[in-house]
Amino acid sequence: MTVGTKKITDQPAPVSFMEAVLYWLKLGFISFGGPAGQISMMHQELVEKRRWISEHRFLHALNYTMVLPGPEAQQLATYIGWLMHGVWGGIAAGVLFVLPSLFILIGLTWVYLSFGDVPAVEGILYGIKPAVTAIVVFAAYRIGSRALRNNVLRMMAVLAFIAIFALDIPFPYIVLAAGIIGYLGSRLSPEYFKAGAGHGASQETYGPAIIDDDTPPPEHAKFKWGRFIVFLLIGLFIGGVAMVMLFNAYGWQGTLTQMGWFFTKAALVTFGGAYAVLPYVYQGGVEQYAWLTGTQMIDGLALGETTPGPLIMVVAFVGFVGGWTKEIFGPDSLLLAGAAGASIATLFTFLPSFLFILLGGPAVEATRDDVKFTAPLTGITAAVVGVILNLAAFFAYHVLWPQGFDGNFEWFSALIGAAAFVALFRFKLGIVSVIGACAMFGLGYSFLL
Description:
- The chain is 73% helix and 1% strand.
- With 449 residues, the chain is an all-alpha fold.
- The protein has a two-stranded antiparallel ribbon.
């Protein structure tokens, strides 16, 4: 098989650090669709098209990030960037995945607070929401078709969906149960829990990758206690110095100091992604600290769903509104106050994510061929597919029945969502193109109402 004049069996040329930086920057601007859509986008680009990393290595990294608290898509980008170009590669990938979203949300939140409801913006959001739903459904299909290699894993995905959708079991318990099942399965029937078990190797589909199944870990990805301790101390130093500076400037009860402490705690309980931590952020931001109202929190979630970057970036919205509401720099510096709040919320939410990758990545690389370690992660990935389907159902309900089942059915949203899915599945259109077209349909429809 050939692609142009180049055989599919040819390994891609090595990727320079700057080439990778440009890709991560681009991803930061186009990473719509929440974690499911973002992971699917990275798989399509890095595994299928560019072949920077093999599917086996990609899924192994994904399995690890699913176990961690924090935004798994951003952590996956950090992991791949670290594996390819070391510490600075991981930092560049992780920061650029978040930075565009931070600036976009600062701008949109300022518009939101300054000018209120804008009909044109509402129309654009109306069109984007069903597109996001279609992206999540398509991502569940793409990831599930590759991760659920046998009936045991498929059944785990179904049970996970039932557990979270029908039984309302918290995500951490589902992760724990899936990991235990995977571990026991590795002892009883290991063939069901081997990464990639059940189908041909990814090489037969996409060709060899720069970081292939049998590519040994680079020197920087080998576990060393000295390196582990140094990274841990640096991470604690950065967080500690930032907190001390806030404490000295504003005192412990200062708004920015409390934001730093609150979002550090939030970063450590975000098992299951943004939707798992939203109740915690709501309780703290709305009820405990009164940084924003409940209605503003819902509006912030809508912005987070329809802007690039991790959905957990809703914390930047909370921080901005909190800084603005509390007028931390006085009534004449509201924009500066909001930007400071958004930046503090983002820093303390994402700092642990970098530590988890830089500290745990070498151990993950060292155990990727040991089924005792990989089987629990394979089981967790199967369960996460079911959780992604639950997310798709959650989106679909709120998009198609915004006032609940007793309200009107949004038939035009349903048409946009169906067209978006067909465009992604049948015609293989890019996610950005689909979102742009749906936004225009939503805007046009809003003018007809």
